[in-house]
Design a protein that fits this description.
D-amino Acid Aminotransferase, Chain A, domain 1; extended; tubulin binding
Amino acid sequence: MANESSVNLHINEDSESSDWSSSDEKQQTQSDTQKTTNQPLPAIKEKKEIGTKKKGKKKRTVTVCLTHCRYDVIRRVAQKFGYREVSEGENWNMYWTDLSITVDRCKEMKRFQKINHFPGMLEICRKDLLARNLNRMLRLFPRDYNFFPKTWCFPADLGEAITYSRVRKNKTFILKPDAGSQGRGIVITKSLKDIRPCDRGICQVYLSKPFLIDGYKFDLRVYTLITACDPLRVYIYNEGLVRFATSRYKEPNGINITNVFMHLTNYAVNKHSRTYNQDQEAGSKRKLSWLNNYLNGLHHDVEAIWYRIDDVIIKTIISAYPVLKHSYAACFPNHDVLPACCELLGIDILLDKRLNPQILEVNHSPSFHTDTELDVEVKDALLTDMFAMMNLEHCDKRKVIREDRKRIRERLLSGVTTKDSHLSGDLKCFTEYFKAEMVNRGGFRLVYPCTNTEHNYAKYFDQGQHSLYCDTACSRAREAAQNALRDEMQLRAKLEAAKRVSSKPKPPGMELASTKSISRASSIPLSVRSDYNNSFDPQVIVEIEEKERLQKLAQRDYLVRSQGILELVYFSMKKNNILRPQDERKYALFDKIRQASEIVNKPTTNKGGPEISDMLEGITEKGAGEALAVQKELYPWRSNKDKYKKHIGRV
């Protein structure tokens, strides 16, 4: 009886008003009997008045924070339930936001407060994370998780995707941003050659043979409500949207591959088409009930189709369940009686030519814009049934405070309580809350847990929990990188400690040993790593290193010119008619250098190349003057340093 009174709140208010009228009639009859019987009844009347005053005490209004909500339909539904909108700083009962929630926001919540998102739900709402979770489950259960297109995450899987495209040259691919929405950034292509290694996103094999209605491609927007995470409870709304493309479908080819009105079914894309139709029966957006009637008319098994759709949705949510459960337990340690979150997801489903559902994406904040009458009809009823299921009156602040005081009193007076008794009390509260959900579910149907199919999903929960902690190639690589970084930091700390110790005065015999240890430590390539990290800082130029560098440059120029590489490049470019005027000028200068170098006597060398001093001795005054003049024109940067003229003369 207590549960029924907590569920049917509006009915109780009507019963209270009826009790008011009945109490007035009883008082009138009692006053008549008082006159006849001469009994002292003023005290009884006074008690009755006191009881009626206590019974007529108003309930506290439920408050809702809609600061970060941009949809008017949610405000209308909240006003329909009599909820009062408050700011973010007040003690609200329900917080509705269109954005994903942070851990700080969750930890600040109190036991009587509720929010419309689960922490960790981005595991299936981001396209890249959804692909990774489904691919992980596909490797574990190849036959059960084959309900989504073959997907790669860029840039990690770029090489694998390119290899697949070379083998399957007839396949078409669709590229999507990893966190986009409303059809923005989607590209359909036949080749993956133009993808850069730094591009982020996902790549899917395009489903080229969907189920068509009157020649048009369509997808389903299925609204899914998660009311609890531990234990998991999933509801699916019976009504939804069927979104059509606005151009008749043809398999992608070189001509129509860029026609987004043919290949994409997003409302945000097709509403800009000139052929967009707003009719409810034959328009570009229709109800799921219309689709069911249409499939029944074609003698398809609608119940079997929706059974497969429910199965796909449940498996998708289970793929992220370990993260959901862990995040919820970490963010809401005090919400041990009532669920602190609820989540209304918009899941996009595509039916292939055999009416098998293929999941496209999961939206954690589906659009609640009401541009058409159909949107108002579907979304208003959806949100009304959702607010009724949340039963926000059950999460009253004073009631929760009384429960906390009762728990403290019982814990102090009853001594040591076992864990089983505490869990049984929580389970009783959950049972009452879930019964209230079932009574007020409206157009929602419970798909999990279900007595007929609950045991079929147990293996997915177990594998998901184990895979959260198992080693993978990526986890092992991250661990190796962390170990290397830790060793480097320890080595650097030892080096700094050695420097600090060396600054202290030491006995004469210990100075030589300490300098040797420091020199050995400095030979470790830590300084190179630090220089690499600070490559934009100016460094001191060492004269010996600069001299060696210029000497190597001179040797390289000598080898290139002595082997005739410049002539070969020049005549090859001239033969293919790609010689530019600046190339002609450069070759003319080179010819002058070659003619000047003919009068130079070649010196003998002992090591792989002539020394610069030996070459300068064999050059005549006239030849050296010409060579230096040409070199200044070709390499002006070298002529600024007089001390390196010997290196220039060698070329």
